[in-house]
Write a structure and sequence with these properties.
This protein is α/β, with parallel strands linked by helices. It has seven helices and five strands; from the N terminus they run βααβααβααβαβ. It has one domain: 3-Layer(aba) Sandwich (Rossmann fold). Helices cover 56% and strands 10% of the residues. It has a five-stranded parallel sheet with strand order 3-2-1-4-5.
Length: 135
């Protein structure tokens, strides 16, 4: 099972998406692709910051389609994830991105592989990672 980070989820909507990422997404069965509620929040935030217009409308429509696509495959922050996240932060000994480290903790608790371009964000705490930009 795979947890897609925000960059991977948003790659498909870009005007010039990376061909390797698109190929990976198409080759991986949807039932193996999961998303964190944190990524959904980051996407919602990014769209909300845009000025009204055609680009924002296009992204709103795309975002509305994500929710049914990932139905039953949205990973939440629960007590087990929160506890793992707290241990990770204390063990690493340096500041970590809250979003990335929570996604990493979610992956570890659920035994998922993180699909991301930012491999180093997850390497410090032992999450398995696939970088589809170089796969």
């Amino acid at each position: 099972m795979f947890i897609l980070d925000t960059m991977v989820v948003s790659e498909d909507i870009k005007s010039q998406p990376n061909a390797k990422v698109r190929a990976w997404l198409r080759a991986t069965p949807p039932e193996l692709q999961y998303v964190s509620v944190l990524s959904l929040g980051e996407l919602r935030f990014g769209i909300g910051r845009l000025a009204s217009g055609p680009a924002k409308q296009r992204l709103e429509k795309w975002y509305a389609g994500l929710l049914p696509f990932f139905h039953g495959r949205c990973l939440h922050i629960d007590l087990a994830v929160a506890q793992r996240w707290g241990r990770l932060r204390s063990e690493v000994g340096r500041s970590l991105s809250a979003t990335d480290s929570l996604i990493g903790a979610t992956a570890l608790v659920n035994d998922f592989t993180v699909v991301t371009r930012n491999e180093r964000h997850f390497a410090d705490f032992g999450a398995r990672v696939i970088n589809p930009w170089f796969a």
